[in-house]
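Thread: "does anyone have the structure for this chain?"

Original post by V.I.:
We have the sequence but no experimental structure in hand. Need at least a predicted one for the grant figures.
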Amino acid sequence: MSEAQDGADGQAPGLTFPAAHVLIAMGPPDDEFRASLIVALEVAGARMTLAPVQTRMSRTGRYQSVHIEVYVESREELESLYAVVKSHPGVVFRL
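Reply from O.Q.:
Generated one for you, tokens below.
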């Protein structure tokens, strides 16, 4: 089995830019978490698509996942937005 090769432009295979990507973060099951995550991304300059923000509750109801679709021009922009998600105080896990 061979390992995946980086593309000619140095990007990981499977990621294309510019494109819409979904950021997923898990945190407390309340509306405040969802709203504050959206605000943090907007302040960071995220360009949200027209897709609605989706939430899903965990099986136990202890956490919710928030799915936010954003339009990004480059891998650097995507990584910058992931850094915003990572630094959010309510985020316990991110995809």
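V.I.: this helps a lot. The chain has two helices and five strands.
O.Q.: and The beta strands are 19-27, 47-48, 54-57, 64-72, 93-94.
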